[in-house]
TrEMBL record:
<dbReference type="InterPro" id="IPR003369">
    <property type="entry name" value="TatA/B/E"/>
</dbReference>
<comment type="function">
    <text>Part of the twin-arginine translocation (Tat) system that transports large folded proteins containing a characteristic twin-arginine motif in their signal peptide across membranes. TatA could form the protein-conducting channel of the Tat system.</text>
</comment>
<keyword id="KW-0472">Membrane</keyword>
<comment type="similarity">
    <text>Belongs to the TatA/E family.</text>
</comment>
<feature type="region of interest" description="Disordered">
    <location>
        <begin position="43"/>
        <end position="87"/>
    </location>
</feature>
<comment type="subunit">
    <text>The Tat system comprises two distinct complexes: a TatABC complex, containing multiple copies of TatA, TatB and TatC subunits, and a separate TatA complex, containing only TatA subunits. Substrates initially bind to the TatABC complex, which probably triggers association of the separate TatA complex to form the active translocon.</text>
</comment>
<feature type="compositionally biased region" description="Pro residues">
    <location>
        <begin position="54"/>
        <end position="64"/>
    </location>
</feature>
<keyword id="KW-0812">Transmembrane</keyword>
<dbReference type="InterPro" id="IPR006312">
    <property type="entry name" value="TatA/E"/>
</dbReference>
<keyword id="KW-0811">Translocation</keyword>
<protein>
    <recommendedName>
        <fullName>Sec-independent protein translocase protein TatA</fullName>
    </recommendedName>
</protein>
<dbReference type="GO" id="GO:0008320">
    <property type="term" value="F:protein transmembrane transporter activity"/>
</dbReference>
<dbReference type="GO" id="GO:0043953">
    <property type="term" value="P:protein transport by the Tat complex"/>
</dbReference>
<keyword id="KW-0653">Protein transport</keyword>
<keyword id="KW-0813">Transport</keyword>
<dbReference type="Pfam" id="PF02416">
    <property type="entry name" value="TatA_B_E"/>
</dbReference>
<keyword id="KW-1003">Cell membrane</keyword>
Length: 87
């Protein structure tokens, strides 16, 4: 691959200026910079996705609460209170 000297770089710069114009050149450079930034962020995201994540600890088991006696649960079907509960 040939080395680029200063004269070749100047010729390339002049050709680019003639093709794009002096007014559109800064906009093109800005767009190119944004594209490179987006590309860099996306490749970093892909690299981060490839690395295994830290293991997530298993959740602790949840114990069922002890049953609570409901008031009036011992009453009969017709709503009367049993003799043992009367005071």
């Amino acid at each position: 691959m040939p080395n680029l000297g200063t004269t070749e770089i100047i010729i390339i710069a002049l050709v680019v200026m003639v093709l794009f114009g002096a007014k559109k050149l800064p906009d093109a450079a800005r767009s190119f910079g944004r594209s490179l930034r987006i590309f860099k962020a996306e490749t970093k995201g892909l690299r981060d996705d490839d690395q295994p994540a830290a293991p997530v600890p298993a959740p602790l088991p949840i114990e069922a609460p002890a049953p609570v006696a409901q008031p009036g649960a011992a009453s009969s079907v017709n709503g009367s209170v049993p003799a043992a509960d009367r005071h």
